[in-house]
Write a structure and sequence with these properties.
Structural class: alpha+beta
Distance between the termini: 42 Å
CATH class of the largest domain: Alpha Beta
Largest sheet: 7 strands, antiparallel
CATH topology of the largest domain: D-amino Acid Aminotransferase, Chain A, domain 1
Shape: globular
Number of domains: 6
CATH architecture of the largest domain: 2-Layer Sandwich
């Protein structure tokens, strides 16, 4: 390396280190003027010698040209959400649930971290260099916002920051939260107010900044970052628990919230801490809507697994949000995709937690009656979970005498059909399968990310295409191509946009059967229930003819779900729709290997490590799952096989220590009867 290149490299290292001291540790070793001298010197040298510029240079945090749009990124592991607890009783119930799944007297420690109110981000590092950053998105797929994330001063562009820290892993993916502190938001809001602009709260402002197509705009926003989870790691020391992972991330130079994190070995002490912490929540320098509690041991996390899309080994402890009062102007009824009629309150606009609320849920007719909520009342509003606004109660002492009691209408407001209520249920239903409001909601759900995930097809398109008569049942989604010219004639539907939409619809035919079943909007059948039903029946076609008594025997499927499934497939209109979807080529069955696993892998657990000769990590995972096995991240006593490639790392050593069978790619090919590549 030339003397000039060495000088530039030393400058980069010194500037990155001092930025870490300033932005992450809040403990600078040099003055701002001294930092500026170093930065300006690097900037001058790079301008004179652009061939010396590297991606981790602090001069490269800003200045990228605006993007035309964000590309999609598939996460290496699902970015799951958490179930909520709102009381000590909820926490103790959670403990009882996970204890039932563990051997008696298993010692369980927990890690508690503040639940920061920001935007979840996923950061990728290759040989220590920051290479990719993405939003959480739907948990499976996010958006590439690398250029925007590079502008956050506390995000390390290269790890480790300090030469005495552990060496960087070959590949590292971490999860964190981008946010804006209260003080920074207040200062930013004051600046923008002088320009006639208004920003509601730190969370929305941070999210908007990170999803701005121009990174220079993002760079002008005072964003910060906390990192709190290792998603994928190849190389580095053995780490067995969350507490150690947090210390390791901090050693590498990541900003880790350490003053509020706690490790508990006693569950009662944890519960007390959660109760006491509320008093200090509002004094934190950033917005936090609660605490996240995780079982510390990675081995126990793996053992407990997931229920639906929630990890059994973690829970969010939420605190009550502030209440405000406003006037209830009217109660309107909305019709859902399964025909459920839900009363909604129209309100005089009011601000709750920095968000302006003009409508709120009233749940059902019983809720309105029990709370004696009347049109014209002054009512108390709260945002449930800091998200969904709801009417908590009326204030009868403020009535003037002209308030009007409300009851559920006898006919559907959308179609005029009869409204019925089944014994034992609080919900009222419109039974008209041709109800236009239901159809719009069903189409909207069918094309959503939860179901068929058709890009470019959302609520607005669902309503428009139903109104135009293009869609009269969900199967008509797949005949929209016959209306291509009519679509082109509509305002805002240029040829490129129409063709992309039609291609996305065609591509969705390859979505797995579980998404098709979920998208049918059968009452009580979401993604988790759909997986249970298909795992037993193998196909939607077989499910359609399975009697409810048989369905009731499936673990997790009770009489109510079984009856609902049987009723849906018994209705003539639904039978017609289902038959058309089959004829149109949608996936109706699980893959053959998934429905009938290869006995060689059925019930076995694999861990992957190293670089395989011909398979990618994703390909190997799919092959193992297709033959009945499962793939986990950490080697434990429950691991049956370690599939090892070149440069296997610490998992190989641990597998040897635990006497876990170690296979090569060739060994697994032979086990499955696959030809050599």
């Amino acid at each position: 390396m030339s003397e000039l290149a060495e000088r530039v490299a030393r400058l980069r290292q010194r500037i990155n280190y001092h930025a870490y001291r300033y932005y992450v540790l809040s403990d600078p070793e040099i003055s701002d003027a001294e930092y500026d001298i170093l930065f300006n010197e690097l900037k001058r040298l790079e301008a004179q010698h652009p061939e010396l510029i590297t991606p981790d240079s602090p001069t490269q945090r800003t200045g990228t040209a605006p993007a035309e749009g964000f590309t999609k990124v598939t996460h290496p592991a699902p970015m799951l959400s958490l179930a909520n607890a709102t009381s000590p009783e909820d926490l103790r119930a959670w403990e009882q649930r996970f204890r039932k799944l563990l051997p008696p007297d298993t010692p369980v420690s927990t890690v508690v971290e503040p639940k920061i109110d920001g935007l979840t981000v996923v950061l990728h590092y290759h040989n220590g260099l920051f290479t990719l950053g993405a939003t959480r998105g739907d948990g499976i797929t996010g958006e590439d916002i690398t250029a925007n994330l590079r502008t956050i001063r506390s995000l390390p562009l290269r790890i480790p920051i300090h030469p005495d820290a552990p060496a960087a892993p070959r590949h590292l993916v971490v999860r964190g939260e981008a946010f804006m502190s209260k003080a920074d938001f207040a200062a930013f809001q004051a600046e923008q107010a002088a320009l006639g602009r208004h920003y509601v709260n730190p969370r929305n402002t941070a999210a908007g900044a990170l999803r701005n197509l121009d990174p220079t705009v993002t760079a002008s926003r005072p964003l910060d970052l906390w990192v709190y989870q290792i998603v994928v790691r190849e190389g580095g020391p053995e780490i067995d628990d969350q507490w150690s992972a947090l210390q390791y991330l901090r050693q590498l130079g990541f900003p880790v919230q350490h003053t509020q994190n706690r490790l508990f070995h006693d569950f009662a002490a944890l519960v007390q801490y959660c109760q006491d912490w509320q008093s200090q929540k509002d004094s934190l320098p950033y917005e936090a809507d609660g605490l996240v509690i995780k079982i510390n041991s990675f081995a126990l996390q793996e053992h407990l697994g997931y229920v639906g899309k929630d990890p059994r080994w973690a829970i969010a402890y939420k605190y009550p949000t502030p209440e405000v009062s406003t006037r209830l102007l009217d109660i309107v009824v909305e019709v859902g995709r399964t025909g459920v009629l839900t009363p909604r309150a129209d309100l005089e606009p009011v601000t709750v937690g920095g968000v302006t609320i003009s409508s709120a849920t009233l749940h059902n007719a019983d809720y309105v009656a029990e709370k004696d909520i009347r049109i014209g009342d002054t009512v108390v509003i709260r945002r449930a979970g800091d998200v969904i606004p709801r009417v908590e109660r009326a204030l009868p002492e403020l009535r003037h005498g002209d308030e009007q009691p409300w009851q559920m209408p006898a006919t559907c407001p959308a179609c005029g059909g009869a409204v019925v209520r089944y014994e034992g249920e609080v919900a009222a239903y419109c039974e008209n399968s041709a109800c236009p409001a239901q159809l719009v909601r069903r189409v909207e759900f069918f094309v959503s990310r939860q179901a068929m995930d058709i890009a470019g097809f959302g609520a607005r398109q669902a309503e428009l295409f139903v109104q135009q008569g293009f869609i009269r049942e969900i199967a008509d989604i797949y005949t929209l191509h016959s209306h291509r010219q009519q679509l082109l004639d509509m305002k805002g539907y240029a040829e490129k946009k129409v063709d992309k939409l039609l291609q996305a619809i065609e591509d969705s035919k390859a979505q797995p059967a579980v998404r098709v079943l979920t998208g049918l909007s059968i009452r009580f059948v979401g993604a988790a229930v759909a997986e249970l039903l298909l795992a037993h029946c193998g196909s939607i076609t077989a499910l359609a003819t399975t009697d409810p008594q048989t369905l009731e025997q499936i673990e997790g499927i009770g009489p109510r779900i079984a009856a609902s499934v049987h009723t849906w497939f018994s209705e003539v209109d639904n039978q017609r729709t289902f038959a058309r979807l089959q004829q149109l080529g949608l996936t109706m069955a699980l893959p053959a290997a998934a429905a009938a696993p290869n006995p060689a892998l059925a019930g076995t657990s694999f861990v992957l490590t190293g670089t395989l000769p011909t398979w990618s990590r994703q390909q190997a995972t799919e092959i193992i799952k297709a033959h009945g096995g499962k793939v986990t991240n950490a080697v434990s006593g429950k691991t049956d096989y370690l599939l090892a490639g070149d440069k296997p790392g610490s998992k190989f050593t641990k597998a040897q220590q635990l006497d876990v069978s170690i296979l090569s790619e060739a060994d697994l090919r032979q086990m499955l009867g696959l030809e050599e590549a």
